[in-house]
Structures are given as C-alpha cells and as structure tokens.
Amino acid sequence: MATITFDKVGKVYPDGTRAVLDLNLEIEDGEFTVLVGPSGCGKTTALRMVAGLEEISEGDIRIADETVNLIEPRRRDVAMVFQNYALYPHMNVFENIAFPLRASGVPKADVKARVERTATLLGLGEMLKRRPKQLSGGQRQRVAMGRAIVREPRVFLMDEPLSNLDAKLRVQMRGEITKLQRDLGVTTLYVTHDQVEAMTMGSRIAVMRKGVLQQYGPAQELYDNPANLFVATFIGSPAMNLVRARLEQDGDGLACSIREGKQTLTLPPRSLKPGTDLREYTGREVAVGIRPEHLVDPGSANGAVSRLRGTVTLVEALGFERLVHIEIDGEPAVTAEVLEIAQDIDAAALQNLREEAADKTVAMIGRFGVEVQSQVLAGESVELAVRPEGMRLFDLESGQAIT
Question: What's the pTM?
C-alpha cells in the first residue's frame, strides 16, 4: 500500500512566512490526486514536503503508514517530474532514462531491459539515441516521465509538468498522463494552477488557498457543490456567475431579489428543506451562484421558473455550443475570494470586476446549444431562463455555501 497522509502538516519559513497551515489530506493507494490553486497557495510546498525537498515545520507526512518527516529524499521511494523536465543535455534518451537506475547500482542487463520497456510504453522506442535538443517539448516531457517510471517507485510527484507546453500539446499530454497513471496504478500527487487540468485528470481534487485546504473530493462534487465562494469561482470554465441579491419571503417560499427587486429568482422548493437554515437569511444579502449551463435559452429550459433580463455583449461560437455573454443590472459579488482569483488571472480581469461594481452591472455567461432559437446577437436585449437546480447561495461575509 502506498497511501500518502498529511496529518496536521504545516510549513513556516525562517522569515515567518506561513506557506501551509494544518493540512489534513489522505491520498489512497493508486489514486490520482491533484493539488490545485492560484500562485502562492502552498500546493508546491506541500508536494516538496512529500518529496523531502522541504522540511516539515508541523505535523506528520506518512507514505504507506511510515512517517517520513526525518527520512532523506532518496530513501522515500518517490519519483518526481519537474516543470522544466531537468534532462541532461549531454546524454541521449536512453542515458537520461537509465540515470536513476545506474546511480542505484542496478545491474547493466536489468537497466537495459527496464529502459527499453519504459521507452516502449511511452512511445520513445525509436528515439533512444537522440539528445534532448533533438526532441519536441512533448517528447522531452515523455523522457522526464520515463526517468520517473523506470524507477518503479511507490509514489509519483508531478509539479506542473505541462506548463511549458503549448495548448494543443497540453491537451494531448493530459490524456496520456492520465491513461499512463491508470495503467501503472501508482499513487500520484499532481500539482497545477490550471483548474481544467485538475478537472480532467484527477480522481480527486484538493483546492488550496493561502496554505489552507478549502475542499477535497471528486471533481464533479466540487463543481456541483462548492464548499465556498473561492472553490465556486476557481473551479469551472467559464466560471460560475455570481450576483448579489437579497433573500426575501415569496409566498410560502423564498426568492432572491436583485437590485431592489428589479429582477427576482425564485428558489427551488428543495432548497427550503429542513436543515439548510435558509430562512435565517431572510432579509439579508447573499451571493447567488449560477453555472453557465444553468443560464440558458428559455426555449430549451425544462422546469425553469425564473428569468434574467440583460443585454448581449458577446457571443462566442464554439461549434458545438455558444457562450452568450450578457450584462444585467445588478451588483457583482465582489468578495475577497473573488478579487483574489481575478487578480491571479491578470490585471485586466481585476479591473473589469472593479468597473462592474462601480457601474452596478454584472457580466454573466450562458451556455447555449446550436439550435435556431439560440442565434442571439450582440447588442440584443434577451431574457435567459435559470434552471432552479443550478442555483447556489453563499454567505457574503464568510464565503461559505448556504445551500
């Protein structure tokens, strides 16, 4: 068994900077877990503590029930794949893959057999005599993977291994790494800042923010039921639509009133079931979250009871679907979590969010099919249906999910 366990793990650097705080996480044997979050969230530090490249300040890390805090890196039986490949330029592919085996004193015949088997697995069989400078980016990444695989370790550690590849090659390599890990069955901890990578590769995802674990679970669970505004905003592409609203009594139910009642979203009955404490928020402002696929053309909305009116600002035609950008009259849910993620994207995203808040408008995205009634145009006034099962409410102060 090669489980990885973080037990109240913390990391404080000599200058007092706290990179990881009270991290509790268990990665099961053979599982592919992705640590994801914005730059500086502590994900790479956590990975390096497993590898032994960073000292642990607090708590314990266990591999296969063995505490490894004081075990030197080479004795932990882990293999790491780095962002920059770290290949030896003066060695050919065979020599690069064989290096860890030769350094460990593996017999020459065994080295040859294991390297050839690994190269065949990775499609490098005809490239063993080439030097790194003669390889493409994807081929170099395969060599780096091969050097890790050939060791037959208990654990793979991968630190943003695809970040230096172009977009098309990243998509291809995502699939190859996922299939390879599934075939080998080796416990894998993978670090990335790209939530699309996280969603498509990991059997489970751990979202981190400022050194603190926000939520851990299957990708779909985090997407459908984010624990807080940070996870809701970070996971999903396009991101979840967020708007401020006041929770008000609506007959026997509740509704979200946007911008002093100019628009109203009726909450589905199931959100009022006992245990949600939703009625305690009556009269208070909350953040309403709606995924793009739940903001749709009224003609294709089965069971939708609410509408949002706005003006189309952009239509992105993607062939199999259209992303319709609309602007509605309301206030964006500009919380610390939302601002942090916008800042991590780029300065333009942060500026757009601030301009929306100043103008009392909210930019939202709906996901349309390609049917005729979805042929909306920029500049048009539209009314989009809101699927009730897709609405999520969040506390504006704590950022925690209410529903």
Answer: 0.88
